[in-house]
């Protein structure tokens, strides 16, 4: 394990050293070297020094992980400086892009060390996925700026952030229409109905033969087939979008709840019968607790389905507000930065929704085997 980790750091140092002798951009038709930009060159040296310290010390402590992370952050600013001051597209900046590849290796090793140090540390456990996401955004920013990709094709994260800042009121109105009105209401009704029907089907077994095949049939119907029908039935406002979400979330909850209720073993059921427990007592105190991981699995699946369903349904008719309406309208106007801003808001909201459900699952089903920690 240590040999592979050392190899990663050696490759980083080697590639960084090679990049120093290659051009990092073009300025006024003149090739630019690393030493022509002292600040960027100093940041490169700091990142290489952090890697060399890790190679020599071979420590795997939290301190070593943080020190290597600081080296990653220092190295990451060098390409940002260069892409803003020189033309960094093509082979004229081969040194810059070689260093960026090397920096990816350093980030890989840094995140590996942080992951190892995160055992028992909730802050570091949160930092690892957060830093990985920031790294992906960073690559997006450097590539779009460095190669001069037009914003109409792919705006940079900086441009998307500016679009969010400049259209806050519009995006909030879209968020309220799509998420608060459509998603939350459709999610609550669809999941609630699926749960209650699952209890009924479990109590009346012959319903499984007719209802579950129907569920498979409805689940196979694409959203673009359901949405126009719901708009005709319930109108153009949020009610039709909520109806689409109900159809999409009902059967995942039904199937997962039934699977969870059936996961209780015969020995556990026999034990409850020996205590003269009724069907409802067995359901409440044994089978539903056992089904909780399945139920939360359905809730997490439905949290993403609900967002997708609401946005797609708004393409087929909505008031002049909503995330789906904003995406379809602004694409026609070539305002791609606002489209990406809306997508970013939807992604953040969907991730938060999923994260809240995952946190609730951890709190409620802490006894489950998947959450037990080795003593």
TrEMBL record:
Family matches, as CDD domains: TM_PBP2 (cd06261)
Cell compartments where the protein resides: Cell membrane
Record's keyword terms, sorted: Cell membrane, Membrane, Transmembrane, Transmembrane helix, Transport
Residues that span the membrane, as ranges: 38-56, 63-82, 88-111, 123-149, 183-201, 213-236, 242-261, 305-326, 338-360
The ABC transmembrane type-1 domain, residue ranges: 172-361
Record's bilayer topology term: Multi-pass membrane protein
Keyword Transmembrane tagged: yes
SUPFAM superfamilies reported for this sequence: MetI-like (SSF161098)
A Pfam family hit: BPD_transp_1
InterPro entries documented for this protein: MetI-like, MetI-like_sf
Family: Belongs to the binding-protein-dependent transport system permease family.
PANTHER family: ABC TRANSPORTER PERMEASE PROTEIN MJ0413-RELATED, ALKANE SULFONATE ABC TRANSPORTER-RELATED, MEMBRANE SUBUNIT
Protein name, as recorded: ABC transporter permease
Organism of origin: Sneathiella sedimenti
């Amino acid at each position: 394990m240590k040999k592979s980790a050392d190899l990663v750091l050696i490759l980083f140092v080697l590639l960084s050293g090679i990049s120093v002798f290659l051009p990092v951009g073009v300025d006024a038709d003149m090739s630019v070297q690393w030493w022509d930009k002292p600040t960027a060159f100093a940041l490169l040296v700091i990142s290489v020094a952090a890697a060399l310290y890790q190679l020599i010390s071979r420590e795997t402590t939290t301190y070593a992980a943080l020190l290597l992370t600081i080296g990653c952050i220092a190295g990451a600013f060098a390409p940002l400086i260069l892409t803003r001051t020189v033309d960094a597209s093509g082979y004229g900046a081969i040194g810059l892009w070689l260093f960026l590849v090397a920096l990816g290796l350093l980030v890989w090793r840094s995140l590996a060390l942080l992951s190892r140090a995160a055992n028992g540390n909730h802050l570091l456990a949160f930092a690892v996925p957060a830093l990985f996401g920031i790294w992906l955004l960073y690559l997006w920013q450097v590539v779009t700026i460095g190669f001069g990709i037009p914003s109409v094709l792919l705006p940079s994260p900086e441009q998307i952030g500016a679009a969010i800042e400049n259209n806050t009121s519009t995006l909030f109105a879209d968020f309220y229409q799509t998420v608060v009105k459509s998603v939350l209401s459709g999610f609550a009704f669809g999941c609630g109905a699926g749960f209650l029907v699952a209890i009924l089907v479990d109590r009346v077994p012959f319903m499984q033969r007719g209802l579950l095949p129907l569920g498979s049939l409805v689940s196979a119907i694409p959203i673009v087939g359901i949405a126009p029908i719901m708009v005709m039935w319930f109108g153009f406002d949020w009610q039709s979008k909520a109806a689409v979400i109900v159809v999409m979330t009902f059967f995942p909850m039904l199937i997962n709840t039934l699977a969870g209720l059936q996961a209780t073993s015969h020995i556990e059921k026999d034990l409850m019968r020996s205590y003269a427990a009724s069907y409802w007592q067995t359901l409440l105190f044994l089978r539903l607790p056992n089904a909780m991981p399945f139920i939360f699995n359905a809730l997490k699946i439905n949290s993403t389905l609900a967002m997708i369903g609401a946005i797609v349904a708004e393409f087929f008719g909505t008031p002049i507000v909503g995330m789906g309406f904003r995406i379809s309208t602004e694409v026609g106007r070539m305002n791609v930065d606002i489209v990406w801003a809306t997508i970013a808001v939807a992604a953040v909201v969907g991730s938060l929704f999923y994260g809240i459900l995952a946190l609730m699952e951890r709190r409620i089903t802490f006894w489950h085997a998947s959450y037990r920690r080795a003593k």
